[in-house]
Amino acid sequence: MTAIATEQHANQPAGSPRGGRGKMILMWVVPFVVFAAVAIYSLAEKKNTNRVLAEQTTASAVPVVAVIHATPLNADSGLVLPGALQAFVESPIYARTNGYLKKWYKDIGSNVKQGELLAEIDTPEIDQQLSQARADLGTSEANVNLSATTAARYQDLIKTDSVSKQEVDNAVGDYNAKKAMVQSAEANVKRLEDLESFKRVYAPFTGVITQRNVDPGTLINAGNGGTAKELFDLAQIDPIRAYVAVPQSFAPSIRTGQHACLELSEMSGQKFCGQVARTADSIDPATRTLRTEVDVPNPAGKLLPGAYAEVHFDVKVAGNLLSLPVSALLFRPDGTMVAVVGTDSKIQLKRIAIGRDYGNTVEVLQGLDASDSVVDNPPDSMEQGQQVHVKAPAETSKSQ
């Protein structure tokens, strides 16, 4: 029976219901497996794409820079540093009395001598007060004369006992009080005369007018109950001062009386020589420099206050000076900087002291070593500790 059943089962036709169900299951499983495989492949591909994109984004966020090295210079030459010119004496001229400007006699650019009249002020109130004070002085003098006469008479009358001792003392005391009133009136007249004398403004020293701030009719306030306004700015430019910030490494070479010359780019070939007048005798902790003053004769007035000059000190400099392209400099509020790439490929900002300017290159006095890898053409946004990639030398030369 079993063999017959088995034979019958084997001889069932292909289109039977059991065979159809197997085909149905196979038709559903195969697409599912294919879909799952495609989905897994897509997810893996997307994950790989995101990883590559993240890596590319991170790599592009790190700037690629080209580095250069400073070139050594021959240091067997005089010390040359930038300097700023300043007037030897400079003072604002204020009025000492109230009133209105009547007339000015000197304008900007005028060379004046000490004691020369600069302006005249109309002072009607002071004039009236002076007239009243003089009248009060006359009254006080008349009163003291009368009191002196009375006191003298009482002193004569007491000899004959015609008046009492008390009356004599009263007369003498009144005379002394009237004398004090005269002295007070005289002091008041002298004060007002001095104020009136200030209506004429004179130059306190010989120099040049660099600024005029008033015109005829301007209200002049000497500072009593208001803000005083300067009438003129007066500057003495002969001699003229040049202030120089000498780097700490060269400070021992600078001494008072040392010969020094000034050169200006707009006056090529001309030298204006003087000497070191004084130094601060201390190093500025903020800049590590020695403030030095050089006084230079300026009889022709060619040197102007506020100008830039190169100061040549008569001293031989021994040391390693470096030359660096201007394109490598960063100008920050803290001073002139360069971006140096460290061994960890991070930026280190170094402040440098600049000497002579050769146009495309500058002389570096201190703050940089010849072995430092300096970023050429650094962006203004470059910051301390920023990560960078250094461009390969072959690639650098190819791009240049």
Taking all Cα atoms into account, the compactness measure Rg is: 47 Å
Q: Which structural category fits the helices and strands? A: alpha+beta
Average predicted local confidence, pLDDT:
82
Order of helices and strands: HHEEEEEEHHEEEEEEEEEEEEEEEEH
Number of helices: 5
Can you describe this structure?
With 400 residues, this protein is of the alpha+beta class. The chain is built from five helices and 22 strands. The chain has helices at 2-10, 17-61, 124-157, 165-197, 393-399; strands at residues 64-68, 71-73, 78-93, 99-104, 111-112, 117-122, 200-202, 207-212, 219-220, 232-247, 259-263, 272-284, 289-296, 308-316, 321-325, 330-332, 335-341, 347-351, 353-357, 361-366, 373-376, 389-390. Strands 1, 16, 17, 18, 21 and 22 form a six-stranded mixed beta sheet that branches. Strand 11 and strand 12 (272-284) form a beta hairpin. Helix 3 packs antiparallel against helix 4. The longest helix is centred in the first third of the chain and has 45 residues, at 17-61. It is elongated, with a radius of gyration of 47 Å. 20% of the residues are buried.
Question: In terms of topology, how is this protein built?
Answer:
Elements: H1 2-10, H2 17-61, E1 64-68, E2 71-73, E3 78-93, E4 99-104, E5 111-112, E6 117-122, H3 124-157, H4 165-197, E7 200-202, E8 207-212, E9 219-220, E10 232-247, E11 259-263, E12 272-284, E13 289-296, E14 308-316, E15 321-325, E16 330-332, E17 335-341, E18 347-351, E19 353-357, E20 361-366, E21 373-376, E22 389-390, H5 393-399
Parallel strand pairs: 1-22
Antiparallel strand pairs: 1-21, 2-15, 3-10, 3-14, 4-6, 4-9, 5-8, 6-7, 8-10, 10-13, 11-12, 11-14, 12-13, 15-20, 16-17, 17-18, 17-21, 19-20
Helix pairs in contact: 3-4
